[in-house]
Amino acid sequence: MRTVPKGAKDDDVLAVVREWVDLLAAGDHGQAHSLLNNDQVEKEWPPERVEKVISAYKPPAGVTPVAGAKAGAESPQQVISRWEPRERRPDVVGEVQFDLPIGGTWSELTATFWIREQGGALSLELYDIHAF
Predict the structure, then answer these.
(1) Main-chain dihedrals φ then ψ at residue 63, nearest 5 degrees
(2) What domains can be seen in the chain, in order of their start residue?
(3) Is-above-0.85 flag for pTM?
């Protein structure tokens, strides 16, 4: 699991997501999975399901590396929201919404990650992948 310091800037958090995307583009779903905090969602988002959901969006086009993606109709969404710990999930202190580059262009398929704080560090947990 990749972590960044608790006080990390948004770009540092997004760098982990971009690495995740690039690993998916390289076909290394297992390594991409290992970047994330999978303590809570191991059964919900195993590498095989991530691959299946993405390939169902726009077959046979796959994930494109971030650096190689071209702008589509709209600019890609890469948004971080942060908040104070909450009673229900005090370790979740924000989320990232990141549009995925599919078939060479940025798509409306968005990966949402929870930002989890543990022991002074932040990790990312895949919460959902869906099209807007």
Answers:
(1) -65, 140
(2) 4-131 (3.10.450)
(3) yes
